[in-house]
Design brief:
Elements (H helix, E strand, L loop, with lengths): L1 H8 L12 E5 L5 E6 L8 H9 L7 E6 L11 H7 L4 E6 L9 H7 L3 E3 L4 H7 L1 H9 L3 E9 L3 E3 L11 H12 L3 E4 L1 H7 L15 E5 L19 E4 L13 E3 L10 H10 L4 E6 L1 H9 L5 E7 L8 E2 L15 E9 L2 E8 L8
Parallel strand pairs: 3-4, 4-5, 6-12, 6-13, 8-9, 8-12, 9-10, 10-11
Antiparallel strand pairs: 1-2, 1-3, 7-14, 13-16, 15-16
Helix pairs in contact: 3-4
């Protein structure tokens, strides 16, 4: 199963709306016959990929899969039936499929006389599948907030300069993080101050994520770098607002709240309707605060540099309306690594919450 999870983990961020799934086929002696992985919509599922590679050797084999085999006829056929027809005698899987359209494979296999064992290394598999699982279970994309900060919590100096707070190694790692998400989200303050490209650089390859820019007042200049390259940026603006130089197909119109900002949950749901299953929030402080306050931040990745800017610097996060330590947003550290001269800290909400605002 750990081998199947390794195979699946390599495909996270490249399978579109579908989950990254790995499969290993074993013979009666436990020798690997074939491995398979899903590569995206319209391509064979992991089980079908492994069965194709194994051929007739799959008869009597054991299939080890990271997600319950599907029982759904979509662009490809049901994996449950493919396993039955191939003569597989035993199936071990890690996580039940939460998608009601595809679930039921385990029951079909068992009804056909196949030995089925679920929940194998489930916790490890949930970690690999967490972005897709969150999207399916909650109906909105998984959200990662990524930021670089000084030791005293500043994301920019008093004059607005922020290049470069983090080390080259941290910047390369951040681009690998980009490649594992479906979309990158920035607010008006970030594109106004930095004119970012939000593409993949530093030698990072993969599918470029959708670049999403918030522009409630239609002020994004036609020459902004966000509008160059592929895929074109999706500009989110208010109804009736004109966006110069942007094809209407690349404009998402969304009502703002009383504060003139886009409600985070409504924004995520609109992106989910466009097939986005994971969002990387890259800026800036007000946008980060909005997602934190709404309880819609699933993961935090912080690159902490050994720098001090003092109280004159720009805070990494905006106002959260917290007056007492008892009301603080509490996070739990899940990983700490060195990236160049920086610390890379990964965190999750201490009390897992699902956003409703």
């Amino acid at each position: 199963m750990r081998r199947a999870l390794e195979i699946a983990a390599d495909r996270v961020g490249s399978t579109g709306v579908n989950p990254a799934v790995g499969c290993v086929l074993l013979d009666a002696d436990g020798t690997t016959l074939a491995t398979g992985v899903h590569r995206g919509p319209g391509t064979p599922h992991a089980e079908a990929d492994a069965l194709r590679r194994a051929g007739e050797r799959a008869r009597g084999a054991t299939a080890v899969v990271t997600l319950e085999p599907c029982d759904h006829q979509g662009r490809t056929g049901p994996c449950s039936r493919a396993l039955i027809e191939a003569g597989v005698r035993r199936v071990l899987y890690a996580v039940d499929d939460p998608n009601h359209l595809a679930a039921g494979g385990a029951a079909r296999l068992a009804a056909a006389g196949v030995e089925v064992v679920g929940g194998v290394l489930q916790e490890e598999a949930e970690a690999v599948l967490e972005m897709w699982l969150t999207a399916v279970r909650t109906g909105r994309p998984f959200v990662t907030w990524k930021f670089a900060t000084t030791l005293d919590g500043r994301s920019a100096a008093a004059d607005g300069s922020s290049r470069w707070i983090s080390s080259p190694e941290s910047r390369a790692d951040a681009h690998r993080l980009r490649a594992r998400h479906d979309a990158i989200l920035v607010g008006a303050g970030t594109w106004r101050a930095d004119d970012p490209r939000l593409d993949l650089r530093h030698g990072v390859e993969g599918t470029a994520p959708l670049r999403v820019a918030l522009d409630a007042r239609g002020e994004l200049p036609a020459g902004a770098r966000l509008l160059d390259g592929e895929p074109p940026a999706l500009v989110v603006t208010a109804p009736g607002t004109g966006i110069a130089g942007v094809d209407e197909a690349n404009v998402l119109r969304l009502k703002t709240g009383a504060d003139g900002r886009f409600p985070p949950l409504a924004l995520l749901e609109a992106l989910g309707e466009r097939g986005v299953r994971s969002v990387l929030v890259e800026g800036g402080p007000r946008l980060a605060a909005a997602f934190l306050t709404a309880g819609l931040t699933d993961r935090v990745v912080a690159y902490v540099a050994p720098l001090l800017l003092g109280s004159e610097g720009v805070s990494a996060v905006g106002g959260l309306g917290i007056a007492s330590i008892g009301d603080a947003h509490r996070l739990r550290v899940t990983a700490v690594d060195r990236t160049g001269s920086d610390l890379r800290v990964e965190l999750r909400p201490a009390a897992r919450t699902r956003g409703t605002q």
